[in-house]
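Schema walk-through. Below, the input block comes first and the output block second. Nothing else is stored per chain. Lengths vary across the set, and this one has 457 residues.
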Amino acid sequence: MKKRVCAVAVCAALVMTLISGCGKKDDGGDTKKKVTTEAVIPEKTTEQLTTEDQNAVQSEEAIQAYMDFLNGKSKVTTSDELYAEDDYRRDYGLALGTYSYEELKKAVAELEMDGSMTRYTFLDFGNDGIEELVLRFDNHTPDLMNWVGIIRYTGSGLELNYYYEDGYRVYSNLYTSGYLKIGGSTGAGSYTNSLIGFDGSGVGSEVFQVNEYYGPFIESLRYEVDPSYRGGSEKYMELSEDSMFSVREYRDDTQIAIAVLEWSEDETTRKKEEAVIDEFVSLGVKLLSEDEINQLSSFDMYATTEVTWEELDDELGSSNGSDVGSAVSDSTEANITIGYVSDDILAGDYYEYKVCEDDFSTQVALKTDAPIQDFTILELSLYEVSEDGQMVFTASPITSYPELTPDKSVVLTMVFMEYTPTVGISYVDACGVKHVYGISMSGYDGSVLLADVVIFE
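--- output ---
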């Protein structure tokens, strides 16, 4: 099936948190009515409505319009702005046109999905008092990408103004503040994060981007700062796999800045690394300290809480016109989280397994907020790297637990081998779907995370 090129190029091939679940119909609430006697208050005329009142009315109209769309009663039209700068992508991405909910889901599936779970939320981008619909198609196949579109009520119809993808090697965090953090691995030796901000129409633009490069992979930065560069410089090739050289880059509309995170201890190798840095400075790149670059690239002032997704049961939320609200799941989602072991974890109940224990080992804890079956710890071995940089692994079970529940964590003692996962997990969710993930370390901040991996069968 065709691979799409994202309409807004945030990252190349990008790693991430995972959600799995299946929808369930609400049994309905109390049908009793309470009759009261109240004074009748005349409605305000349009002229009497304040801006706040008007926004409230428009927001209510917008929510109804989104519900009608999810129930198959209306259609959404793609914005021409999706392809304003890159018309050639029309052959690869979502074609411009008008779609019902079912037509949109089918069109996205034809790009690179074999089936998906629909989730949605409402978010006021631009803080103009009118919410947008954020529609998410979560792929049933973890090795492929998920699709997220932002739909705006225009007052007379619906418009799809922006979309992005996450999934294999790509994570995304959408915050209630209206900002999107997206990034992941761009190969064996580089990592990227971008912060996307949105206007009141739900159109996104990059606020800043942070990249990390290891050894010879810093050559990628050369292409960005020197349009005349054609590749093949020995300066980068001489930074062999043994180089400890790592660089963090910050870029926005006004500047490109870098900081060296680590130099090689070998004196000869370090001189080569210093020559590379001197060359970038001569090309106009600012050289800053690690603290200065971290201050520039901090996401903390933008990140609030992540949005809460509602689940849509397609069998209920379709053209039959049934109520979308009754299709929202309330208890079937399972969120798997991972982090370094804390005192709270060790004070509670947990399974413990030592994958590898030596002077370089560390402890991580895995938790679920809903029961999952066949939770298995895997040994991952790199099988091959495809031409497009995609890593493929073989997986062998180490140990397993019939069920993992919220009241009992799994604590693993293990060693991280740079940024290529050697330990993974698999489990079966409430829908009977098997998920496989690698345990990896972020090249950005050293945090531990779960990343989608491709397994050779």
